[in-house]
Amino acid sequence: MRIAMITRSVPATFCGVADYTAQMSRYLVQQGAEVSLWTGTDQNFSSAGMAVHPIVPQWDQAGLTLLFEQLTLAQPQIVMLQYTPPFYGGQFNRALIPFWQHCQRAGWQTVLVLHEAYMHEGHLKNRLVGQVQKYVLAQLLRASRGVITTLDWATNLVQKLAPQVATVQIPVSSNIPLVPIQDPRALRAALGFEQQDLILGLFGHSAGCDVSLVGYLQKALPHPWLFLGKIAPKLRGGKHPGYLAPTDLSAHLQLIDILICPVKTGVSGRNGTLMAALEHGIATVATCGALTDQCFRQAQIPYLVPTGDQEAMLKAVRSLRDPQARQQLSQRSRQFYRDHLSWSIACTRILRWLAGLGEEPVYNK
């Protein structure tokens, strides 16, 4: 199976989609697919068993025409486009529409990997931009043979906008591989924590995070905090080690006893930070809201509390101060990730689904 993977960014660009694309491509290669990665001329990336083509100078009509010409020479069977509205420049990129239509007419199986759909909340300007983003998405869907989504809301949206398109829902997997820490006591000491401290943690980006809920917990609980990722500048107190390479980030995650995921719309299958926490077996308390998928609600993994409910969050964290309760949630979380969310599981499902794209569409959640 020859797959051409299109992405604006690749590692070491600080971007979740870039990390996701690299990990997906590596695991597809490990499972026997022939993957080539097509990206911008400003990107520098290499990976064993994968051809990387940094050929797109700009993601405009001229750049996308060049990309199409080179894809024509390569003759892939499947073309996958990693997509979120602002990913290819501006708040949306209408030049993607004719490019994707050309790919469809070339006879390739066109697969859209949908990370974000469009802005549908916030002030009037955002909602107006969101309508254009929705139009662009609808046109891309019409030129797609299949779509990979990551959460229930997106799956339902795709089936509403383009019911003829084959859709598979596969949550993102962790982009932070678990690397067992050799000396946790030394790292605790280096960060200024006492060995007996119960460490609360927060990991990720400030966008969509209920910072006020974290502030409430900081006032109500005496425990020290470790902040990882881009979220720290929005918060006071706690330890923040700054940017960390994946191996170091894994080590720091393993210091956290209880992780808080206070997403305003609720955690879902697109939250890479949640997936990293589950893979690392961290006892995690997360918000359950409009975007929270049924798989998490049914499994009650992580420990879910309603969005905006400060008292419920505080009660949950207090209950996990019991070591046995933390250990049980940790074990259940790690097993849930291995059975349903790991890259091996995800890419096995993706390849099985891709193999059937030449047949009648199958909607598979």
User: Going across the major beta sheet, what is the strand order?
Assistant: 3-2-1-4-5-6-7
Number of helices: 13
Q: Describe the largest sheet.
A: 7 strands, parallel
CA radius of gyration is 21 Å
List unreliable stretches of 5+ residues: 360-365
Kindly state the percentage of residues in helix.
40-55%
Please state the overall shape, judged from the principal axes of the Cα atoms. Answer: globular
Structural class: alpha/beta
**N- to C-terminal separation?**
23 Å
Could you spell the SSE succession in H and E letters?
EHEEHEHEHEHEHEHEHEHEHEHHH
- Count of strand segments: 12
Strand content: 15-25%
Arithmetic mean of pLDDT: 91
Describe the model.
With 365 residues, the chain is an alpha/beta fold. Helix content is 41%, strand content 17%. It has a seven-stranded parallel sheet with strand order 3-2-1-4-5-6-7, sandwiched between helices. A five-stranded parallel sheet has the order 9-8-10-11-12, sandwiched between helices. Strand 8, helix 7 and strand 9 form a beta-alpha-beta unit. It is globular and about 60 Å long. The C terminus is likely disordered.
